[in-house]
């Protein structure tokens, strides 16, 4: 915490965020209160809130928490198999469009401007490559959802993931091409360093390939444990972000079965316990990101 | 001149093990300068064992057999019938490797291949230990060694780190069970590329070398200098086999299980020559004998 004064924080062009699932597995009023309060207390500028269960989302409660603590928020979701818009099954595609639309409407209601995640296909192992028709279905849905989101100034982030979590978008270059074909200004690229670590030539290449479409970053270690405890080349990544002029949020993502129940942890392949103390882990991550940003800042 | 025999996975050249595919893989592996050709044993129905053994012998190539199990034939299951089917697959695989003149059966021998949707139970792990202990005794009688390949979280819930592999090998307690490290999986699961080598030491029996995206070596970001330093430091003299997959070569049994959606190369033989040169060069650069 030592070097992180008010003035260095004010000079930083990126907000530092934390994924809600570092703290909690769900978003009940109790969970939301705990996650937002802890995030603010740990010094984060922003919290990423899961928007997978919109019907049970207490909008007024979350809005008040954000107003009271003064931290920002974004929404995220990962489409389930029965809501896979990169499918040839029209029922699944329609269900996925409903989920995306509901998330966009929720963001608008909360006054938030970003919905990201696995928004273009289901998240999970696939039994076969994505067919051209499945790809076209995903693009058609995203075109419609983007148009609706634009009316509320909401952007939609496409977080490309590794080969085990989607058969459609695994690299920044493929994601940029996919977005360009749709042609909507508010569809943006979302880099997750954990996924880029498996699929990209380098973290720097991911930033370069994303160009000015990059809107959001997940900072996750190669094994999704504590930042700096693994093999990701963080200084190269942050130098690339600084050079590119990226000014969007950088959000810490890490998962532990000390926090999450089996329904969340098992689809992620979380078989080990990387940490038990969420507060210590989150604070260390925020300090780590802040130190990397300051070291890479053009003025330093 | 390298001290380690170098190998290549046959899926660089061919998607299956028909006579024609075996002949092509053997010829291309040999032409690219390799000492070992690794065959996946997922597709043995049309494998002519005697003919393949002769093809390897004629070419002067060593054979390594590799496999994972399946959800209906999985020794990490709690269901005795599922465990029994997995044990049968492993026994057949030892027999096939022996028939092919091979000395090593390796891979995810301890579980099915894929995301389980649940954690490994104590009973499931006990089944793994029991089956592999018996299998190791049977394999020893045929002069076959078993390798425990450390795989990533999306492929197995049993062994994701070198530490877990050692613990499993300890529990199996047979001398012909070795640890198999793979740089591709290490990049996802391990803290770095040095500690796993230090931890495993002389119990390391086999290495897969693969780039982080499983394409051309050197076209990704794996720190191969650290990898080869660590390998050299523990005095490893065993096989190093290159593994790379592209949608250009499709195996009906393996490609979807490995989530191979991307085209990372089209020319397998060119890739094989490049990898041989890359690995030889890295060993020369990073060994003690400068």
Describe this entry's structure for a reader.
The complex is a heterodimer of chains A (300) and B (290). In chain A, 43% of the residues lie in helices and 15% in strands. Chain A is of the alpha/beta class and 300 residues long. Chain A has a single domain (6-296), classed as TIM Barrel, CATH 3.20.20.150. In chain A, strands 1-2-3-4-5-6-7-8 form an 8-stranded parallel β-barrel, surrounded by 7 helices. In chain A, α6 (172-182) runs parallel beside α8. Chain A is globular. Chain A starts with 5 loop residues before the first helix and ends with a helix. The model of chain A has no long low-confidence stretch (mean pLDDT 95). With 290 residues, chain B is of the alpha/beta class. Chain B has an 8-stranded parallel beta barrel with strand order 1-2-3-4-5-6-7-8, surrounded by 6 helices. In chain B, 55% of the residues are buried. Chain B contains 9 helices and 8 strands.
Q: What's the gist of this structure?
A:
Chain A: Residues 38-277 form the Xylose isomerase-like TIM barrel domain. By secondary structure, chain A is of the alpha/beta class.
């Amino acid at each position: 915490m030592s070097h992180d004064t008010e003035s260095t924080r004010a000079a930083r062009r990126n907000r530092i965020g934390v994924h809600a699932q570092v703290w909690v597995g769900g978003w009940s009023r109790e969970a939301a209160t705990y996650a937002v309060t802890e995030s603010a207390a740990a010094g984060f500028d922003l919290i990423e809130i899961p928007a997978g269960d919109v019907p049970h989302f207490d909008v007024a409660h979350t809005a008040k928490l954000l107003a009271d603590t003064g931290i920002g928020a974004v929404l995220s979701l990962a489409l389930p198999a029965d809501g896979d818009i990169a499918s040839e099954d029209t029922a699944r595609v329609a269900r996925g469009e409903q989920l995306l639309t509901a998330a966009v409407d929720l963001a608008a209601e909360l006054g938030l401007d970003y919905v990201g995640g696995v928004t273009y296909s289901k998240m999970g192992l696939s039994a076969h490559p994505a067919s051209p028709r499945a790809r076209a279905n995903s693009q058609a849905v995203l075109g419609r959802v983007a148009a609706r989101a634009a009316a509320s100034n909401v952007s939609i982030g496409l977080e490309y993931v590794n080969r085990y979590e989607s058969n459609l978008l695994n690299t920044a270059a493929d994601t940029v091409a996919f977005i360009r074909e749709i042609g909507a200004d508010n569809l943006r690229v979302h880099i997750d360093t954990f996924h880029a670590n498996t699929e990209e030539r380098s973290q720097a290449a991911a930033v370069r390939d994303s160009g000015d479409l990059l809107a959001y970053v997940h900072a996750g270690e190669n094994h999704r444990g504590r930042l700096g405890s693994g093999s990701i080349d963080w200084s190269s990544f942050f130098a690339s972000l600084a050079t590119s002029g990226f000014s969007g949020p950088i959000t810490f993502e890490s998962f532990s079965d000390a926090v999450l129940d089996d329904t969340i942890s098992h689809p992620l392949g979380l078989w080990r316990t990387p940490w038990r103390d969420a507060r210590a882990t989150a604070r260390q991550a925020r300090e780590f990101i802040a130190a990397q940003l300051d070291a890479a800042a053009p003025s330093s | 001149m390298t001290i380690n025999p170098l190998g290549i996975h046959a899926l660089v050249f061919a998607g299956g093990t028909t006579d024609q595919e075996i002949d092509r893989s053997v010829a291309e592996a040999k032409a690219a300068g390799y000492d070992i050709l690794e065959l996946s044993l997922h597709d043995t129905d049309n494998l002519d064992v005697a003919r393949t053994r002769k093809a390897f012998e004629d070419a002067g190539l060593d054979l390594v057999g590799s496999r994972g199990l399946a959800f209906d034939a999985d020794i990490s299951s709690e269901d005795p019938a599922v465990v029994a089917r997995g044990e049968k697959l492993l026994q057949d695989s030892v027999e096939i490797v022996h028939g092919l003149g091979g000395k090593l059966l390796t891979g995810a021998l301890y579980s099915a291949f894929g995301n389980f949707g649940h954690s490994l139970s104590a009973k499931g792990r006990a089944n793994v230990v029991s089956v592999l202990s018996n299998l190791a005794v049977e394999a020893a009688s045929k002069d076959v060694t078993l390798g425990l390949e450390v795989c990533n979280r999306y492929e197995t819930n049993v062994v994701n780190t070198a530490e877990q592999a050692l613990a499993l090998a300890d529990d199996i307690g047979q001398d012909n069970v070795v640890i198999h490290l793979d740089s591709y999986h290490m990049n996802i699961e391990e803290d770095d590329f040095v500690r796993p080598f230090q931890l495993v030491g002389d119990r390391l029996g086999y290495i897969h070398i693969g780039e982080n995206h499983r394409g051309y070596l050197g076209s990704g970001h794996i720190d191969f200098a650290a990898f080869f330093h660590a390998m050299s430091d523990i005095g490893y003299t065993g096989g190093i086999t290159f593994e790379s997959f592209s949608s250009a070569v499709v195996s009906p049994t393996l490609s979807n299980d490995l989530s191979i959606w991307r085209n990372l190369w089209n020319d397998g033989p060119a890739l094989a020559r490049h990898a041989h040169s890359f690995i030889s060069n890295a060993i020369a650069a990073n060994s003690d004998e400068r």
